[in-house]
Amino acid sequence: MKLTEISGDINTWFDGSGPMSDIVISSRIRLARNLAGHKFLSRCSVDEKRVILDKLKEALMSLEVCGRNFYISVDAASDMDKHFLVERHLISRHHAFGKGPRGVVVAEGESFTGMINEEDHLRMQVIKGGMQLKQCIEQINRIDDGIEAKVEYAFSCRYGYLTACPTNIGTGIRVSVMLHLPALKMTSQVEKFFGAARAMNLAVRGLFGEGTEAAGDFYQISNQVTLGVSEEDIVSQFEDLIIPEIAEYERAARKQLLSNQADVLDDKISRAMALLKSANLISSQEALFLLSHLRLGINMREKMDVSTPAIDRLVTLGVGENAGGLSIATINRLFMLTLPAHLQLNYGKALDATHRDALRAKIIRSALGQSS
Amino acid sequence: MQCQSCQKKEATIHLTEITDGVRSEMHLCEECAQAKGIVVKSQIPLNELLSTLLSAQPEEGELLGETAQKQSCPNCGFSLDEFRREAVLGCPYDYELFEEALLPLIKKAQDGRTSHRGKIPSKTPGDTRKEIELCALREQLDNAVKNEDYERAAKLRDKMNKVE
């Protein structure tokens, strides 16, 4: 598969659909597994890594997940392609810029990926749009069973699935939900809220996982305890308890903004529209920040039937298929397609930061219906 | 007692020397002792040191046991010293080999839990499955007793009897 075949569009789980999609962007479940009879990767020779890669690649490629499977050799990929794969959440930064033979198997539609030779021999994930953790766990369990029929995993009676780092042992599961929380941010409640999440042993990260700042009011919340709690218990804790509660707080904050600070909210959406419509240079950070405000406005109009002067003007944005106002899917498209590696891959060559900022501004202006 | 040398600080090092049947005593502060070239060995008993380390909740990578520190895995060559640097183990066998040293870290990282609950590979034989289930129940029972939740403890004990 050529990456340019997928770089012109967003992946299926990012199309703005799915339950609770006004707040929950995506649900993701990752399992960490290692093969029995092999060392963990930090002690593996290049030859042993290659043996592991071949075994797992064969097992993963023969699975029937969702249409065809593709294999991408990460160690042979260019830096630009590696950045692209990270931007699309197909691989982690650690995998992109690691060492030795390694690769990723991607199922059509990109909802399943299996990273081979990341920190563990196999790290596989299923991502779906909106709140769909239960569907994710069902699917990844089936895939895991399919792989286990072909290989033997390292497993101990006491510690469960054995992983290179003791922070992943037991179930080897990481449940992450990506949330859009602009109103909690605007009402300065987000820090207090995440303090509570940390006290519950949950990790809060930015858009691209570990070590990244929360950009554009997107936050990933995930479990940290993997031992002594079953997969089902972790998933239902997220799906039935934690996420609905966060969503309630965000919805309450949106209502609070409307009743107490309607002019501030209106101004933020109005400024975002004005800047995105007329900027000639725009960084990816600024684009995320401003598009986040548009996204909030569109959701408030569509899901809460809110009307303010700026929110009403949102329907004047967009041309062609977007005439009559931008959809959440279009906003998500702009989020993803204006990321640095996406921009450059779709443009066909490497661009310096200023040229990227100019191209990003142009793409956004034209999606918003500005002719130049 | 004041330091005999500087006459300022508190004397924390007390030396008794007996030469040709003549006993002499020296009381020094740490700085003066060092200045006189007296090497001070740690007098803290090992068990006290371990409990201090445990109560201080060692950061990931801080490991216990001097012998374990130097030991290396015959299968992969991994040592605890490397774990301190890289925070990953060398092979699945290391969990068994370095269990004593790793357990406090596992407990800390996993919110006090030390036994697996959840998915088991389908190839696992029935006896092993039973063992895993009992192991998890035992941990839950210990926690229930610790929290004085005797009603739950009784239920867990019944469940264990059933499994056995």
Please summarize what this structure is.
The complex is a heterodimer of chains A (372) and B (164). Chain A has 372 residues and is of the alpha+beta class.
Give the helices and strands, then pairings.
The complex is a heterodimer of chains A (372) and B (164).
Chain A: E1 24-33, H1 46-61, E2 69-73, H2 79-87, H3 93-96, E3 103-107, E4 112-116, E5 122-129, H4 133-148, E6 155-156, E7 160-161, E8 173-180, H5 182-186, H6 190-199, E9 202-205, E10 218-223, H7 231-260, H8 262-278, H9 284-304, H10 309-313, H11 328-337, H12 340-347, H13 353-367
Antiparallel strand pairs in A: 1-5, 1-8, 2-3, 3-4, 4-5, 6-7, 8-10, 9-10
Helix pairs in contact in A: 2-12, 7-8, 8-9, 9-11
Chain B: E1 13-19, E2 22-28, H1 30-35, H2 46-55, H3 66-70, H4 80-86, H5 94-97, H6 99-109, H7 126-146, H8 150-163
Antiparallel strand pairs in B: 1-2
Structural summary, described in words:
- The complex is a heterodimer of chains A (372) and B (164).
- In chain A, strands 2-3-4-5-1-8-10-9 form an eight-stranded antiparallel beta sheet, covered by helices on one side.
- In chain A, a hairpin with a 4-residue loop joins β3 and β4 (112-116).
- In chain A, α8 (262-278) packs across α9.
- Chain A is α+β, with helices and mostly antiparallel strands and 372 residues long.
- Helix content of chain A is 45%, strand content 15%.
- With 164 residues, chain B is mainly alpha-helical.
- Chain B is 48% helix and 9% strand.
- Chain B has helices spanning 30-35, 46-55, 66-70, 80-86, 94-97, 99-109, 126-146, 150-163; strands spanning 13-19, 22-28.
- Chain B has a two-stranded antiparallel sheet with strand order 1-2.
- The interface between A and B is large, with 44 and 39 residues.
